[in-house]
Amino acid sequence: MKTVKLNNGVEVPILGFGTYQITDAVEAEQAVKDAITAGYRHIDTAQSYMNEEAVGRGIAASGVDRKELFITTKIWVENVSYKGVMSSFDQSLKRLGLEYVDLLLIHQPYNDVYGAWMAMEELQAQGKIKAIGVSNFGVDRVIDLAAFNDVTPQVNQIEINPFQQQSKNIEVLHKEGVAVEAWAPFAEGKNDIFNNPVLTKIGMKYEKSAAQVILRWLVEQDIIVLAKSVKPERMAQNLNIFDFELNEEDKAEIATLNQGESQFFSHSDPEMIKWMASRKMNI
Question: Does the domain at residues 3-278 carry the CATH identifier 3.20.20.100?
Answer without folding.
Answer: yes
